[in-house]
């Protein structure tokens, strides 16, 4: 992985909006391009960076993309317990009926009751 890619991941994880916006506004870089086997949206979801998630989705990030482990940004947010991120991704069309790599439904994979409720609402 290049130094540029490592820097991008670090900036996403730490919510460095100006730096991340600069990368995408000053280049032809694809927001859905894998960086270290995942998309930028996966990293933002993992670390609960809601503002970053909103920016990435606004510039075209695919909310249903899968990383090299077949994990979606929604599942990353579910596993990490980031309720607001889960809610936003669902509002933007993330598939709530996914299956984890070990065969669980997303509802069963959620530990937080608030997240389970959000996922159950979208099943109807």
Q: What portion of the residues fall into strands of 2 or more residues?
A: under 5%
Give the overall shape, derived from the CA principal axes. Answer: globular
Number of helices: 8
Mean model confidence by pLDDT: 94
What's the number of domains? Answer: 1
| Helix percentage range | 40-55%
The CATH architecture is: Alpha Horseshoe
Number of beta strands: 0
Radius of gyration: 14 Å
Distance between the termini: 42 Å
CATH class: Mainly Alpha
> Would you list the SSEs in sequence order as H and E?
HHHHHHHH
CATH H level: which superfamily? Ankyrin repeat-containing domain
Largest β-sheet summary: none
Q: What structural class results from the helix and strand content? A: mainly alpha
Residue windows where pLDDT falls under 50 for at least 5 positions: none
- The CATH topology is given as Serine Threonine Protein Phosphatase 5, Tetratricopeptide repeat
């Amino acid at each position: 992985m290049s130094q540029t890619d490592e820097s991008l991941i670090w900036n996403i994880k730490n919510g460095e909006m100006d730096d991340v916006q600069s990368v995408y506004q000053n280049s032809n870089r694809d927001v859905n391009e894998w960086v270290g086997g995942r998309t930028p949206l996966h990293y933002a979801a993992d670390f609960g960076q809601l503002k970053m998630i909103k920016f990435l989705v606004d510039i075209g990030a695919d909310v249903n993309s899968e990383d090299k482990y077949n994990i979606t940004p929604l599942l990353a947010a579910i596993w990490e317990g980031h309720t607001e991120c889960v809610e936003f991704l669902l509002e933007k069309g993330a598939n709530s009926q996914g299956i984890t790599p070990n065969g669980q439904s997303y509802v069963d994979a959620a530990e937080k009751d608030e997240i389970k409720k959000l996922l159950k609402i979208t099943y109807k």
